[in-house]
Amino acid sequence: MIEANRIRYQKPFRVNWWGRLGWLAAILYGLYALNYLDVSWLRFIQGLGNGAVFLGEMVPMDFSRWELLVGNLLETVEIAVIASAFGVLFSLPVGLCAARNLMPSWVTWPARTFVALCRSFHPVIFAILFVKAVGFGPLAGILTLVFASIGFIGKLFAEAIEEISLKPVEALRAAGAPFLSVIIYAVVPQVLNRFIGFSSYQFDANLRNSTMVGIVGAGGIGGTLFAAFQRFDYDFLAAILVSIIGLVMLSEFISDRIKRVFQ
Amino acid sequence: MTAPGTYTWQRFSARERMARFVVFFGFAVALSVSLRTVEVIPEFLWDSPTQIMDLLKRMWPLDYAYYPGGIHQALMETLHIASLGTLLALVLAIPVGVMGANNIVRVPLLNWLAKLILVSSRSVNTLVWALLFVAVFGPGALAGTVCIGFRSVGFVGKLFAEALEEADPGPIEALTAAGAPWTSIFLKGFWPQVAPAFWGIALFRWDINVRESAVIGLVGAGGIGMVLDTALNLFHWDRVSVILLSIFAVVIIAELLVTNIRKRII
Q1: CA B42, B234, B223 angle in degrees (round to 5)?
Q2: Per the domain annotation, does B1 fall within a domain?
C-alpha cells in the first residue's frame, strides 16, 4: 500500500521544453538564413507583382502548336519506357549482388558502391555528363534514367532480398541445388511482388524525370519547355505544363491499376 | 459437401492471369514501339567511349584552388536554400496535411482540395518549379528557396496526412469527451502521436532537398548549380570535377547525418 503511494505520476500535459527549444531554434535559423540569402520582404512583394503579370501572360493557353507538343510528349514517354525496361533489367543483377545475406563481401562491396554512386548525383548532373558523352538527343536521357533507376531499384531490391526468410534457401542448398536454382526457386518468389511494386513506382519517377532531362539537352519535352521559357513564350509554356501534369496524373492512375492487378 | 471431384488448384483465377498478361503484353508493345521510333543515332553511341575518355582527361587534374574562392560560398548558399526551403515546406504542409486528413477535417470537398494541392506540387518537377519561380522572383536564392518549399509540400503533406489518418482515435475521443477545444485536441491528441513521423519525414525531405538544391542553380535559382552552369558553359572541366566532388561530399555527409539522427528519434 505504501509502495503504491510512492509512485509519482507524470503530469499529463507537461510542457515539452525540448520541443519548444527546437521550434525556437528553427525560427532563429530561418531568420538567419533569410538574412544570409539576402531575401527581403520587398523582393517578395515585387515578385508577387511579377507573378501576377506572368500568370496573366499564361492565359489563354496556346495549343496551336499541338503537333510539336504531342511529338515531344511521345518522345518523353518513349524515353521513360525504354529507360525503365533497361533500368529494371540491370538493377536485378546489381541488387542481387548487393544483398549481403546471399553474396560474399567482395561482391557486395563494389555493387553497393556502384548503387550509392548512382543515387548520390541528381539525374540532371548525369544528364549533363551523358549529353557530353553521347551528344544531344533522347539517348542521353535514356542513359541518365537507366542509371537513376539502378540507383533506386537496386538499393530497394537489395534491401528486399536481405529481408527474405532464409529457410527455403537453406533447404534448396541442402538438397544440392545449383546457385541459379536457389535464386529462381527460393529468392525470386519471395521478392517478386515487391519488385514489381518498385518497378511501377520507378516508371512513374522516370516519366517525371524524363520531362526534365530535356532542359540540359537530353531529349523529351523539357527542351521545348526551356525554349518556350527563354523566348518568353508563356502561353505555350502553360500549355506544355498542363500537358505534363496531365501525363503524370494519367501515369499515376495507370500504375495504380497495375498495382491492384499484382496485389 | 460436394463429391470429391478433380480439383485443379491454381494460384490465380483466369481473370487475374488475364490482367497480368495484359500488363506485361502492354509493356512489351510499348517498349518495342518506343525502341523503333525513338531517334537514337547509333554512331553517337559507338563514339561515346572516346568522348568519355576525353571528358575524363579534361577533368583531370582537379582544380582544387578554385574551391575556396569560387565554390565554398555557393555550397553554403545551397545548404541554406535546402534548409530554409524545407522549413517553408513544413510550415505550409501542416495546414494542408491537416486539411487532407479525413479523420480531422470531415468535409470531403476540403480533403479533395488538399489532395489536389499535394498532387500538383508533386507532379511538377523541381527544375520546372525553379524555372517558374525564377520568372517570378528573378534569378537568385529567393526563387530557389520558394521552389524547394513548394516542391516539398506535396511530399511532406501527403505523408503527414497519412500519419494523421493512422493516429489512434482513443486519446482523441477522450479529449473530445472531456470537452477540449480543437486546438487542444490537435496539440495533445494528434501531435504527440504523429510528431516522430513528422520529424522523420522532415529529415528525409531535407536529405532529398540537399540533392535537388544543388541542381536548381542550372536554371538560375541560386546555389552551387549556378557555379556549375558557368563552369560548364566555359568548358572549365577541371572546375566541373571539383564542383561535382564537393556536391558528392555534401550529399554523403547529409545522408550520414540524417541516418544518425533518425536512429535517435525513432
Answers
A1: 100
A2: no
Cβ of residue B17 closer than 8 Å to a chain A Cβ: no
Question: Residue B17 is placed in which grid cell?
Answer: 492471369
- How far is residue B266 from each of residues B193, B251, B260, measured CA to CA in Å? 12, 22, 10
Asked whether residue B97 is assigned to any structural domain, the reply reads: yes
CA distance A154 to A152: 6
Give the residue from B32, B86, B199, B18 showing the smallest Cα distance to A18: B199
Burial class (CB in 10 A: 0-12, 13-18, 19+), B189: buried
CB contact under 8 A, A37 and B138: no
User: Based on the domain organization, do A138 and A31 belong to the same domain?
Assistant: no
Number of domains in chain A: 2
pLDDT, position A175: 93
Q: Is the reported ipTM for this assembly greater than 0.90?
A: no
Question: In the structure, what pLDDT confidence band is assigned to residue A4 with cuts at 50, 70 and 90?
Answer: low
Q: What residues make up the domain containing B224? A: 69-265
Is the predicted pLDDT of residue B68 greater than 90, yes or no?
no
Verify whether the Cβ–Cβ distance B136 to A47 is below 8 Å: yes
Tell whether A134 lies on the interface with B, counting CB pairs under 8 A: yes
Q: What is the pLDDT of residue B94?
A: 92
A72 and A182 share one domain: yes
Q: Which domain holds residue A247?
A: 66-261
In percent, the amount of chain B with pLDDT more than 70 equals: 98
CB B224 within 8 A of CB B246: yes
Low-confidence winner among A20-34, A80-94, B41-55 (lowest mean pLDDT)? B41-55
In a domain, B25, yes or no: no
Of A13, A37, A121, which is closest to B77 when you measure between CB atoms? Answer: A37
Q: Is B129 a member of any domain?
A: yes
The tens digit of pLDDT for each residue in A90-128 reads: 999 999 999 888 888 898 899 999 998 888 888 888 898
| Number of structural domains in chain B | 1
Distance of alpha carbon B18 from the chain centroid: 35
Mutate to test the interface with B, among A14, A16, A37, A234 (most CBs of B within 10 A): A37
Closest CA to B189 of B197, B198, B180: B180
B34 touches chain A (CB under 8 A): yes
Based on the fold, state whether residues A23 and A73 are members of the same structural domain: no
